[in-house]
Amino acid sequence: MTMVEKKLNNDFYIESPLPPKRTRMQEVRRLFGQNRLAILGLFIFILFFFCAVTGLFLTSGSRPVFDPAMVRLQEKLRPPLAKPNLDSLQPQEVPALGVYLMGTDDLGRDVFARMLQGAWVSLTVGFVAVGISVLIGIFMGGIAGYFGQHHIRTDQVLFTFALMLGTGLVIANFTFIGTVFLLLCLAYIFYSLFARHGSTEKETPALKAMFHSNAVSIDTLIMRIVDIMLCFPSFFLILTVVALLPASIYNIMIVIGLTSWMGTTRFVRAEFLSLREQDFVAAAKALGLSNFRIIFRHIMPNAIAPVLVSATIGIASAILTEAGLSFLGFGVPPPHATWGNILSNGKNFIFDAPWLTFIPGIAILIVVLSFNLFGEGLRDVMNPKLRERH
Amino acid sequence: MIDGQTTNDRPLLCVENLKVYFQSNGEHAHAVDGISFEVRKKETVCIVGESGCGKTVSALSILGLIPTPPGEIVDGQIIFSGQNLIKLDEKAMQKIRGNHISMVFQEPLTSLNPVFTIGDQIGEAVYTHKQIEPEALFQYCVQLLNDVGIPSPKQRLNDYPHQLSGGQRQRVMIAMALACDPDLIIADEPTTALDVTVQAQILALLKSIQKKRSMSVLYISHDLGVVSAIANRIYVMYAGIIVEQGNTAQIFRAARHPYTQGLLASLPSLSKRGKRLYSIPGNVPNPAYKPDGCPFHPRCRHRILSCQKEYPGMCDYGEGHLARCPVLFKSKGYKASRIQGVK
Amino acid sequence: MLSFIGRSVVQKTITLFFVSIVSFLIIHLAPGSPSQVDPLNPKFTPEMVERFQKEFHLDKPLYVQYIYFYRDLFTGKTVSWKDNQSVLKKIWERFLNSLPLFVVGTLITWTLSFPVGIRSAIFRGGIYDRSATFISYVLISIPGFFFAYVLIILVVTYFHVPVIGMITFGIGDAPATYLFMDRIWHLLLPSMLGATGGIAVLSRYVRSQMLEVEGQDYIRTAKAKGLPPEQVHYKHALRNALLPFVTMFGLILPGLIGGSVIIESIFSWPGMGRMAYEAILARDYPVILTVNFVSAVLVLAGTFISDLLYLVVDPRIRL
Lengths: 390, 343, 319
Known about the structure:
Number of helices of chain C: 14
Number of helices of chain A: 14
Order of helices and strands of chain A: HHHEHHHEHHHHHHHH
Oligomer: heterotrimer
Radius of gyration of chain C: 25 Å
Largest sheet of chain C: none
Strand order of the largest sheet of chain A: 1-2
Order of helices and strands of chain C: HHHHHHHHHHHHHH
Shape of chain C: globular
Number of strands of chain A: 2
């Protein structure tokens, strides 16, 4: 038996066995992998995406593989997997696969082709609407959270009012008064740019002090705007705007996006408020980084987690909203097919041709469900309480 | 093998070979890996160790408070008043918790329910186990608050936890623990979250209560200074096992395990003035990835080849002083026959 | 406390003012004019159109119209353009129709969500929890009208429960009990439909709140005191978990004027939602603006009440 020599230094120290090092990505994958429903959701989403993209290719163009617009009145209301009546059809009217995979609707159109066409619409509506709302939400929430304590001066408020009033009056043909206001705004800009604020003045005159006083903080301003938007029941707002504007798919997407950014704003603001106080922000400031860089490179990646979750769930709800709008008759105009369209069309034939209702309904259900499951899985993964502490 | 006490020798609490494992995130953690200790009547026993060594888990498992999906008591027994607590069902355990064995936790602010008054929470502890009329209950609670040294107890009973200071909250926790006159109080680092001056007060309070009510105290701590002030006997824990045990004098003056020696050497004191402070090199091992053989061997200056392979048994130095290091044992000239069997 | 109330009221009134301006602008700046004034509308002669315009000040500038409208609103004289009835009276009638639907739906939602959510949390991961979770997801994801039609088919084919409208057509002067039962039958399906979505969302929220509370230290203390599990869960945990829901109670208020357009359309229920929908189609500005205004008032009142309730219920907050 040999004894290690007693030394006063720490040469004897050897490393204890360490747990395997995992990168952040592997950690996320592992946590996610434990939630089987979320993986199912992701899988279905990928499937849906694939269908939508191929569907777009297969149904567009002048001679599409599956033609959603081909009207065959003699074949109306055929059930799914029905063989077409070849005698009554022209050669180009025969469906591509030899059967009506999902039956035909009341105008004899192939439901399968329409579903494929509609998949792309639903996907676009969901993503674009949520994209708009997330962008607005991050912007508003970030500013409210980061610059929240900065105040807007009274003179700046007056300036904005004068600007808006002036433009409004000019548009409403009150050219004279309108131009007066706009000239005032211009003068103010020149004044603030070129006038020297004498720093040697001992007393700022009372008038000037009043103009430079703080009127309202940016945080309050943005939160009040959010409150105003929240006062309008969202479905009504969408309905109002969609009913009043000419029907088009872009209008629907933009309107849904413009009316659902409030939740994201709240989340982002809350995250920014708490992250702003953390040491890494103070360190970044001490290094002299610009505000812009701090917000986008340092704080934003940390704040993005709840936004992602609400975005996935938002896509689901946008798809449902579009279906609801189509049901009421305000969706994408015919003959373009959306799943909501097909569903709303089918309600008239619910006892004769139930597949017209069930097929799009179940399809919407599955896709929306997959988004919701995926979003919930994301929420569990991003939950800081469940994360490994490194 | 047992020192001191002669009559009435059955210990109040006897833990034998307790093993508690946790399964989470794909990792299998041996939080407590076969410890045995006992608490006798009217004595204060301290379990000392760094964070992560398993002392809190041991305390919680006595009362059956380990959350069972990730955690599980895999082996061992906990004998209290002739019953094995591990084998008892929930209803029987409820009769023991708060009644015969009660617990004081580390964080007094989060350990008290914020929406109920102090009086409500203390009264609840009493009401559940004892039959007292409502009028007498109030007086009883006032008396409890007096015992723990809270001024104007009548007003305090109607206060909410957030209206009290940290020290007062911890006194309330102690009052709740004392409510049913338990035989054993388990205190899990009760002073760690408090200021040093308040710490001293709470320790003095515990000591005086123990004397007055003839209770036993199981005190968990990482602070050797605190331990030296109140302990009768000490168990030193490391990485889920007990590495040394003995009474206070034996541990502080004649520590026989390299870990205990390292802990004592790291304590700042006047005699070390001007010299570099010592710290044990390395880190506590991750409970899911423990080294083979002796868990301390990577950080031990007395390590020999067999330390890396064989799990060391407890070495008996006599008079209740045991240490889990055969290397030092043999170097002091003791015979290998006095080493107890391995796990 | 008083200063808080004062500040709140002032802020909310300012918000209300801005809401009124914004809604006014949206309506009037949107393209298309009310059907009555549309010069292309064949039903109206030019003289009628002009008279209509004069009557409702449509030829005056926007801010003048704004003042006229709100003056009429507050004096109760606003009149619908479609059928010349007083707007407030119309709203009130439809409100009374929507009310039972709303009340029954909310009752069902709140009474069922809590037991489901609490039980899911206490027996987390068990069969009950997993099936309740899955059913919640399905209910949230199903398009409302699709589900409605499925239910209608089921109910009509197998149970012969009447589904259309509020009362059976031609029931006339049946005795009171018959009338009452008839009402209940008709209420059943629409309110259940409205409730299912609500139950799904609310029960998951209850569950997550309960789970968060159950993980707190004071629950461990309660167990360590030897309290029986019913007391631990239903006294200690629940009381803390319920805090945010008391405040949510105030937010139910805006739902009064909501009314789901879709449910009412499917069941031909003459409620608020349908009225607003028809008004939007017909560009019936007074009705749209009034509904908007009332809804804004309810939203602001609801948030105010929930802030107040939060103050009362949480002992940690004292002003």
